[in-house]
Structure formats: structure tokens, C-alpha cells
Specification:
The chain has 103 residues and is an alpha+beta fold. It is built from 4 helices and 5 strands.
Length: 103
């Protein structure tokens, strides 16, 4: 779930979307909410350059959010990378669709 925008100058995070939508959708579909990932321009730059964002910006809120989501997935699958993880899928137009298992 994308959350606030991280300012590239001061690293302050500003919520640009309504809060709680991802949590609500997950609850409605009875699937775990994995977390909020702040939108951070440095992530896009790192990806475009082929750099490892998690290593370069390890202390950023975005890196911490990604690590948290990975930890939740690993815990929910018992560390088995082949185990399905139920996820909420938003339908076009913002409505809720049925839960789906991640590949």
C-alpha cells in the first residue's frame, strides 16, 4: 500500500493519499495487511540506475517498510518461498476484488 511522499530534500513524509484504505481493504477481504510503503524519489532513481536501494538507503522509512513487508511474508509462509500468500487485489476503479494467492 503506497502511503506518503518522502521529500527528497528534508526526508519529511507527507500523506498525499487518504490513510487507512489498504488496511480497510485487507480487513474486508480477510487477508493480512502487509504494510505501507512511502513514495520516495530515491527509490525510483536507485531502480533506474540498477543500484540496491536497500543497501544504499538502509535507514530510510521506505527501506524499513520494505523489510517489514518481507518479514511478514517470510513469517506467514514459514520461510517456504513456494508457499502461497493471500493478498488483497484492488479492482479497477478502486473497488475490492476477491482475495488472490500470490504466485
Amino acid at each position: 500500500n503506497m502511503s506518503g511522499f518522502v521529500c527528497p530534500h528534508c526526508s519529511d513524509c507527507t500523506n498525499i493519499f487518504a490513510a487507512g484504505g489498504g488496511e480497510g481493504l485487507a480487513a474486508q477481504l480477510s487477508v493480512p495487511f502487509l504494510g505501507r510503503v512511502p513514495i520516495e524519489p530515491r527509490l525510483t532513481s536507485a531502480l533506474e540506475e540498477g543500484s540496491n536501494f536497500q543497501t544504499i538507503f538502509a535507514t530510510s522509512a521506505t527501506a524499513a517498510a520494505c523489510r517489514h513487508i518481507c518479514d511478514v511474508v517470510i513469517t506467514s509462509t514459514g520461510g517456504n518461498p513456494a508457499a502461497p500468500v493471500p493478498v488483497a487485489v484492488a479492482a479497477a476503479g478502486g473497488g475490492a476484488a476477491a482475495p488472490a494467492a500470490a504466485p
